[in-house]
Design goal:
32 strands, 10-stranded antiparallel sheet, elongated, binds alpha-L-arabinofuranose, 482 residues, 34% strand, 7-stranded antiparallel sheet, mainly beta
Amino acid sequence: QGPCDIYAAGGTPCVAAHSTTRALYGNYNGSLYQVRRSSDNATRDIGVLSAGGVANAAAQDSFCAGTTCLITIIYDQSGRNNRLTQAPPGGFSGPAAGGYDNLAVATAAPITVGGQKAYGVYVAPGTGYRNNNTNGVATGDQPEGMYAIFDGTHYNGGCCFDYGNAETNSRDNGNGTMEAIYFGNIKVWGYGAGNGPWIMADLENGLFSGVNQHYNAGDPSISHRFLTAIIKGEPNHWAIRGGNAQSGSLSTFYNGVRPNVAGYNPMKKEGAIILGIGGDNSVGARGTFYEGVMTSGYPSDATENAVQANIVAAGYSTSGGSNPGGSLTPGSSISLRATTPGYTDRYIRHQNDNAITSVITSSSSSLDKSDATWIVRSGLASGSCVSFESRNYPGDFLRHRNYQLYRQSNDGSSLFASDATFCPQTGKNGQGTSFASYNFPTRFIRHYNNTVYIASNGGSNSFDNATAWNDDVSWVVSQPWA
Ligand code: AHR
Ligand code: AHR
């Protein structure tokens, strides 16, 4: 069973079902999305590993080996052909040729679903998908529901990271001409409790966190790594719901009448579908999308609760791309994956004796895989910490010198031992592990411009920059690439 089987059983069937990670119907066995590679502009449809299952990420990896792939189409699993493609210019133009928006880089959001590797849709500002000619999507004041799974740690204050119903001419056609899920921390229109990000409804000329046009205390800041976000609307009634896509149930953050300003009752929905942009093709926002649907009819809370249970059971996880679950036990081989949004496909590897990060996939060369693999040793300077011996240069270790990391052979000195010893602690951004330098304990292994350092959180070196420090010093200990 998939989410759309649950919506259908509840009498509110999916009229659009988009995902690059998994089938949204128990019997769906078709294509999830299409990628295009830059080497020869060839395209390839990416399907599922089995009917109702997870995306065949390995098919993408092999098709895209040695080149860059973009996501060109996100297919509609509902059978209505409401697919999403590169968004055209509208009230605002995108950065690509002809004023179109950019397409997402296909490897930029790696995760696992049920232990299988999959890729989400990584929306950097300027990226957008749209369908202005849909079939079966709500128009006017017709009832509809929608959910999406986002990366709750990847957002900004630009307008507008949306998924849902928008104008069919890509322009701002006035209050009530949209009904979409918004996620981010822009405060120009509505906002909720705390500093954000918030799930809000983009109803055009306004992001609504509740009945009031601006502040509504009932809409909390919410930033689960995998976030379930829900908006639904019917005549003079709508709701915001949300929860953790990895565990637990949904909460209702608003459930009531249409906003207390003119133009939103009745609604004037037009039935286009957008992803990553505002209704007028505003392209300032960032975010990551994994799956989402739109329904015909106003889904019951019970139906949505069953969908949430299905999502939790699917098992979204960040642990280790295709290689989850490495161990810091001495003797085991591991790879160290970055967790900074946009860099989560990069691993610490040595190259020309320097420690840098590189994108490593299952189709990388065996040399790259070996360079990105480390054998955990009891810390050379302290048994309560660890050292990392090179997989393909036995006797060489990861060590810092002038705060930069290198692969070097152990000269047996106590300075080398200290420089090559790192003390693991919980990841500073809540993911994975951070590694404090043994002899500079306020400095942690950090990537900066794809080079690896021991960096303090703010300081005189460029690589001590406080921006993104928490993310840059947090690493997922993954199973070894080699
Ligand atoms: O409602 C917020 C935004 O305002 C819409 O997404 C966009 O169409 C307009 O700029
Ligand atoms: O990396 C900081 C220090 O710089 C190291 O301890 C030492 O090897 C070098 O002088």
